[in-house]
């Protein structure tokens, strides 16, 4: 039995190594490969995960994504597993502790923006019902499938420009268009798996015009 399992594991590793992936994930680094295969480009609808990825993409500014991936467990511990309500309530003592935490990027602006972004995130949830509903309303609830070639992938788009502007208007920080485009790729709003990648959707790209989000419908007032 043990020999059978070991053989199956070796076969799985060989098949994984033989798969064609997006160029950025073609390195042998297992963290990169795992992230590409299991997360990147897959639609996310859980608000906690959306807050996590928005935070991590902002933390990456000026750094490599691999650096952030390797600190991900530290971020989850430091930011209460990305419980938005808890992060929004972090006081001065908690902020000071974060600035001393070697498990995360100890940048004051990035740390403080995560806390203020949590408050802005809660405001979006109150207005729209969920951050998921707010975010996906820009594309009508469907992923934008681009299937780019092997050349450079754009760092921004009209969609990321629109979402970036709206988030900034709502008080979010570290939400420039380039950061937001990476966020959209990460949570599957934009699917940028290259044509030659084994995860590339086998459908034609769909043109999408960015839409303004709608507030959540409120129940009609009841008569007394």
CATH overall fold name: Endonuclease III, domain 1
Q: Helix/strand/pairing class, anyone?
A: mainly alpha
Strand content: under 5%
Measured as a percent range, the helix fraction is 40-55%
Euclidean distance between termini CA atoms: 71 Å
Main-sheet strand order equals: 1-2
Assembly state here? single chain
Radius of gyration using CA atoms only:
19 Å
CATH class: Mainly Alpha
Q: How many separate helices?
A: 11
Number of E-type strands: 2
Largest sheet: 2 strands, parallel
Bulk shape:
globular
Uncertain residue segments: 6-14, 217-224
Could you please describe the fold and organization of this structure?
The protein is mainly α and 224 residues long. The protein has a single domain (31-191), classed as Hypothetical protein, domain 2 (Endonuclease III, domain 1, Orthogonal Bundle), CATH 1.10.340. Helices cover 51% and strands 2% of the residues. The chain has eleven helices and two strands. It has helices at residues 2-18, 30-38, 47-60, 65-70, 72-78, 84-88, 92-99, 108-128, 131-136, 158-169, 177-186, and strands at residues 144-145, 190-191. It has a two-stranded parallel ribbon. Helix 3 (47-60) packs antiparallel against helix 8 (108-128). It is globular, with a radius of gyration of 19 Å.
State the gist of this model.
With 224 residues, this protein is mainly alpha-helical. The protein has helices spanning 2-18, 30-38, 47-60, 65-70, 72-78, 84-88, 92-99, 108-128, 131-136, 158-169, 177-186; strands at residues 144-145, 190-191.
């Amino acid at each position: 039995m043990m020999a059978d399992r070991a053989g199956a594991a070796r076969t799985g590793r060989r098949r994984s190594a033989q798969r064609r992936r997006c160029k950025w994930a073609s390195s042998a680094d297992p963290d990169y490969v795992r992230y590409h295969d299991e997360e990147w480009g897959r639609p996310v609808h859980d608000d906690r995960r959306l807050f996590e990825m928005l935070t991590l993409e902002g933390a990456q500014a000026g750094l490599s994504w691999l650096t952030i991936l390797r600190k991900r467990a530290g971020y989850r511990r430091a930011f209460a597993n990305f419980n938005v309500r808890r992060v929004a309530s972090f006081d001065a003592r908690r902020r000071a502790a974060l600035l001393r935490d070697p498990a995360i990027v100890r940048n004051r602006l990035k740390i403080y923006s995560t806390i203020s972004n949590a408050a802005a995130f809660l405001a979006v949830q109150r207005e729209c019902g969920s951050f998921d509903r707010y975010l996906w309303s820009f594309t009508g609830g469907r992923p934008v499938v681009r299937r780019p070639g092997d050349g450079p992938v754009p760092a921004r788009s009209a969609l990321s420009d629109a979402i970036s502007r709206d988030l900034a208007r709502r008080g979010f920080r570290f939400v420039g268009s380039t950061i937001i485009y990476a966020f959209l790729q990460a949570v599957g709003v934009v699917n940028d798996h290259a044509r030659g990648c084994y995860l590339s959707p086998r459908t034609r790209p769909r043109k999408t015009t960015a839409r303004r989000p709608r507030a959540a419908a409120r129940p009609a007032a009841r008569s007394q």
